[in-house]
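Recall the central idea of this unit: under ordinary conditions, the amino acid sequence of a chain determines the structure it adopts. In this exercise we apply that idea directly, starting from the sequence alone.
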Amino acid sequence: MDLKREIRVAANTGEVDFGVKEAKKDVKEDECKLLIVASNCPEKEMKDVDEYKGVPVYQFEGNNQSLGSSAGKPFAASVISILDPGDSNILSVRAE
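Accordingly, the structure predicted from this sequence is:
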């Protein structure tokens, strides 16, 4: 699977949120199906997210600039919350 392509498809056809604050809110509100975390996301920012309701967390191999770019955005994104995958197969990364 081409992860960057799937992220772009999810961002274009589904519903995604960007950033640590949004990720925490989405998980608390039980809206999040998957979190994709950039390799350089500060560990202290994400430590308590893992404790929320067992939402799967995927470690993206690139940095936050690469993650934002993968979603087709002109800004860095430390975390992307997948609320609705749209036409993508992004949720299948959980099995990998």
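The longest strand covers residues 79-84.
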